[in-house]
Amino acid sequence: MHDRTTRKSVTFSRPFELAGVDEKFDAGTYIVETREEMIEGLSFIAYRRVATTIETPFMGFGQAARQVTTIDPKDLETAMNRDAMENLTEPLAHEMTR
């Protein structure tokens, strides 16, 4: 079977949580990887998602230590939308000094 993997960076400006994951993540940029496998036997090329993971710091083991956690892409999208909405509703710096 043919697999393909895509990697992307996602950036959060505020701490965030993902459903199904016990820890709260700090604001920052994270690597998200999606692995898909080709669906064979079709008359066209199609893939099905096998796993989506997020790479995060592994606390207590130094800056270079990373851990990979399997996540639901819908939960990631929800967290990204929440982060974007919170940024839209944040008062501008000049509005806070009045």
Describe the structure concisely for a colleague.
By secondary structure, the chain is of the alpha+beta class. The protein has 2 helices and 6 strands; from the N terminus they run ββββββαα.
List the helices and strands and how they pair.
Blueprint: E1 3-12, E2 16-17, E3 24-25, E4 28-38, E5 47-57, E6 66-70, H1 73-89, H2 93-96
Antiparallel strand pairs: 1-4, 2-3, 4-5, 5-6
Task: Write a structural description.
The chain has about 100 residues and is of the alpha+beta class. The chain has one domain (about 5-95). Helices cover about 20% and strands about 40% of the residues. It contains 2 helices and 6 strands, in the order E-E-E-E-E-E-H-H. It has helices spanning about 75-90, 95; strands at about 5-10, 15, 25, 30-40, 45-55, 65-70. The protein has a 4-stranded antiparallel sheet, with helices on one face.
Keyword list:
two-stranded antiparallel ribbon; 2 helices; 4-stranded antiparallel β-sheet; alpha+beta; 42% strand; 98 residues
**Alpha carbon gyration radius:** 18 Å
Biggest sheet architecture: 4 strands, antiparallel
Q: What letter string, H or E per element, gives the SSE order?
A: EEEEEEHH
Indicate the low-confidence ranges by residue numbers. 94-98
Cα(first) to Cα(last) distance is 62 Å
Care to count the β-strands? 6
| Fraction of helical residues | 10-25%
Average pLDDT works out at 86
Strand share of the residues?
Answer: 35-45%
Number of separate helices = 2
The shape is: globular
The structure class reads: alpha+beta
Structural domain count: 1
Strand order of the largest sheet: 1-4-5-6
